[in-house]
Amino acid sequence: MKSIINIELFEEHERINFYTLRFHDEETEADKFLDQFPEGCKYDEDIDIIIKWMDKIGETGALERYFRPESRANDQVWAIPIETSNLRLYVIRISEEILIIGNGGAKTTATYNEDPTLNKHVELLQKIDRFIKSRIKNGRITVAQKQLKGNLRFNL
Question: So which domain of life are we looking at (predicted)?
């Protein structure tokens, strides 16, 4: 059975818009990530680091130096935070003005692809990144400053 996933606006800031992914009839991937680590859990400091980086990105834009390269050289899948942390939040960096927030989790292995959960999150973003690039190329999605416009619904 195919899954339907939509890209939707998550937060607007002066310099950047944060988007996220939502599977049909589910909460957003960004919310799923945050729900994994409720206040008072052992990852409080790590969540605070990620929130600090998201706030900084909201103020200054998605500068490449704010992200940890986590995927292939030809895609735009990155991780937050750049510094050492027990958590990873995976994102697609479309531009300095558009960031798509995916999901993530606790980092317990040397690389994401050694962990089935993290690998699943990265592979989803890699697939969405390929779809976005294809639709931008054929004009079905346009990037207009902080906005993604067009067909933001995907059948996986």
Answer: Bacteria
